[in-house]
Amino acid sequence: MLAFVGNVNADGVVHHKLSHSIRSRFLRFVPLDWNPSGWVGLRVEVYGCAYKSDVADFDGRSSLLYRFNQKSMSTVKDVISLRFKSRQAEGVLLHGEGQRGNYITLELHRARLALYLNLDDTRLRFSSGRVAVTLSSLLDDQHWHSVLIERFNKQVNLTVDTHTQHFRTKGEGDSLEVDYELSFGGIPLPGKPGTFLRKNFHGCMENLYYNGINIIDLAKRRKPQIYSGNVTFSCSEPQLVSTTFLSSSSSFLSLPATLSASGGFAVRFQFRTWNPDGLLLSTRLIGGVSLKRAQKQHLAVSTGHRVNDGLWHSASLSSRGLQVTMTLDNEPSSTMELGDHMEAGDSLYFGGCPSLNVSGCENPTLAFQGCMRLFSINSQPMDLNLVHQGQLGDYKELQFDTCSIHDRCLPNFCEHGGQCSQSWSCFYCDCSGTGYTGATCHNSIYEASCEAYRLTGSSSGYFSIDPDGSGLLGPTQVYCNMTENKVWTVVTHNSTDPVRVQGSTLQNPYIMKFNYSASPEQLMALVSGSEQCQQEVMYSCRKSRLFNTRDGSPLSWWVDQGGERRTYWGGFLPGVQQCSCSLEENCMDMNYFCNCDADTDSWSNDTGVLSYKEHLPVSEIVIGDTNRTGSEALYRIGPLRCYGDKSVWNAASFYQESSYLHFPTLQAELSADISFYFKTSAPSGVFLENVGLKDFIRVELSSPFAVTFSFDVGNGPVVLAIKSHVPLNDRQWHYVRAERSVKEASLQVDQLPLRFLEAPSEGHLRLRLNSQLFVGRTGLIVSVSSASCVLVGLASYKYFYLCEVSVSFNRESSVTYTFQEPFSVMQNRSFQASSVYRGNSRARESMAFIFMTTQSPAMLLTVSTFSQQYIAVILARNGRDTSRIITVGFNPLNSQFNPACVVVYREYPDLIDKDMNLKYSLSSDTEFISIKSLTLGKVTVDTMDEEVMQAGSKGFIGCLSSVQFNHMAPLKAALLNRASSLVSVRGHLVESNCGALADSTIFHSQSGEEFGRGRGPLRNASQSNYAVIGGVVSAVVFISLCVVVVMTRFLYQHRQTRRDASIKEKEHRTNLETAYRREAAYRAEPAYRTEFRLHDSHSSTLNDNREYYI
């Protein structure tokens, strides 16, 4: 917006030059101040930049013909551009065709632009076979519109104003062959074979270019290749004044009824609207003795159908003698018989009635919302400019000299193929048959996985699943095999029966492509969202090798989902040309890695299961060695089978006020849905927030009794709030779902009534965000804290982290979780283990858990590797020999259940305890290779140190909660998948609420609350015990912990000072052990310590000589 200084007198002229050129359809000038001593007035002239304009005016019967220099023109690339403004909703802009069946037609149809393009050498004899690409609407508004057609081979771009549609033509041809000529503005020979009769264009064209040739310029210069029939080279401006009826309750236009020389009355006008109901015309009839009878009975006549399509329609109503005739467009007239001669009253009311009760105007429905023009009463045209100036008739809530109609279905905001319809002020989506529901067909009616169907109580069968929920992908049908242990999702393809192959060579191989019942994008979403996928490959052979025995090059292979060639078979290592028999060490000839490579005359088998899910499913198989005498192969590719759903009950825990998660910017310009479960004891906090320059979206707990959903798309902040009659910070799971679209916003909390708000019909629509998406905290805004949990699923993006699960252990209890490798680990291959495992080594591990116990010593956690390394976390008494032991100290009260939160990070080559802020240095070669499993509780493996074994044999008595190792939660995963082969549970385990009690003690939460697990009632009596302990002891524990923390901090600082001095002065192990003894003597009070031990049994040097510096 720019401000300009105007003139100060009636004759002065002030010039302003813009520093930069602008391109606009409209300019708006707003006077800021007037000359106080003069009259109010304004005159503005705007001079544009240099612009070349070649214009042609078509009167509806004219056209331009561009004749080629040769008989036909064949092109593989075309660029056609023009500008036009039309007075009608129908008309041909461009047409060309060839005798072989090629054609191109650009025309206006129902005020939309349609492009017909055929590159096939087949002639379509019926118009029903012509497929059009349509774009834009309301193009008969007498405004200039730009068109650009770009074609290269089959790829076509059609652009109208600012809207572009990309598409590919059907058929085998790549070139467009047009015979003799191209016509612009109409089809001059409608009887020509292969063409279809259309209306000619009525309006103006400007700057018409065909492949760089200025057609209008050639016509103006009367070049011989151009024939112009009745075309003028200036654009006439018809005086068509329209008026817009803005209000559905109060708009009206009153015009006087002129006298008719022949008696009766006749009214004509044009209208366009989107509304299905509205008053067009009302008047009082004046007649003879039959008037009262006519008032007592209502006579009706109707004509036309579907006139609320946004197009201009002509209506006329006339009376002659005892008949009233009504005509709509060019349809047959409808008549009604009267009992006596009738004439119109003094005034005719269009669109509605005045607010006051006016005799002669009745409105049985809503007032008209739309546009009208070309009023004629008794064959006399009405000048709307006089109405606007107050010299003729009366009006209210009208807008003159414009038709302010908008197509609210362009662009189509109905998602997933929903059909859009509209009224004057809003649009509606018909979601029938799409598989989606909601105001914009955003929400899928199907579950996201077979696992989700099982949770609803369904049994095995065929189901439609939507892997990405409300994302772009649609639903697909799969078979859900719900076994006792797992829920398998089965996706079939077009060739599941055994296939025999003969006569193939490497130069001419046998190729089979597999078409699955789901699209590649749906398969990718299904595989990525599953915990594990597999596909069986049955391959039998006779004198048919998989690999060339001379150079090892593959003779047969399969292609993965990304189009990459794969040469491993049966679940073996990706990139390794071997089969399952090599893994199991039972190949018929140990000189080969596959049975088929033995190349025997008898049938061999290399069947296996592919389980590296990033490569699944198999999209193609290629077999190339079955051309020798007696050679043949038999294969069968089984269906894709997946189990597990990563999106089922995963969560994130926020243990500190500064805790948060951040993700890339939320893609939610037009629509987004956010759903999660949470539990907390905090009175308020932000669950989620993403901001832009001005726009934002936020979901928060605004008070213990209220959840709010707020956003701003540029129309001002919008806030939806739901208040609960019970506290929401009661440490129970609560469900929140927020959704925003261009049509409405909604908020749901548990089973409380849905909060709903419609979006304004005018204003900004797009939510423009540019920062990261924060879950739990936004910048400096503190989110839900005090160890709260949130489970989040966002639109088509899903981020899931694991939350607290609490389990009570006894002396014999243990949980072992085997970390799932992406492929099967080779067994008994020591000569290959080094290279394989080194590639999977880790120099960084992190672990976190909460525990309560009175036992010491006790084994808390053990992590082991395939190379017999291990990490052990042990609870032990202070005062013992601590060489090669990393300790993290804390001081719980004796003989009581008191929680301690342990968060340990091992970042090569250092050790960090997060809570105590201690750092321990290890030797430089502490590389942790190929993690195998994690065990909580009792350990019976005899490959560990005696000290570790002593603690491991005594197990752990107490509670473990919120166990996390790196980015996994093994305790949670083990409890949810007890039937999995990756999980081993020994002894008696009881899920408990001790984790909630631990949280309340550590973070000073409210006492006396009854905590639950959030997954149902407790299954033993520990709940009541812990509740009593929490209520009675929490106050004492709070005070005690405060004192202990202060003392520990002081002693730690004092000890750190002595330790630093000791390290600088002592360089040998004996001196280091002396320092430990002094420190132990200094801190003689009873204490417990958490021990962190790193061990590698492969190297005796590592066991005997490694020193850990503290």
Report on this model:
This is Contactin associated protein-like 5a. May play a role in the correct development and proper functioning of the peripheral and central nervous system and be involved in cell adhesion and intercellular communication. InterPro entries: ConA-like_dom_sf, EGF, FA58C, Fibrinogen-like_C, Fibrinogen_a/b/g_C_dom, Laminin_G, Neurexin-related_CASP. It is a single-pass type I membrane protein. Belongs to the neurexin family. The protein is mainly beta and 1110 residues long. The strands form 13 sheets. Strands 31, 32, 33, 34, 36, 39, 40, 42 and 43 form a nine-stranded antiparallel sheet that branches. Strands 15, 17, 19, 20, 21, 23, 24 and 26 form an eight-stranded antiparallel sheet that branches. Strands 1, 3, 8, 9, 10, 12 and 13 form a seven-stranded antiparallel sheet that branches. Helix 10 crosses helix 11. The protein is globular, with a radius of gyration of 41 Å.
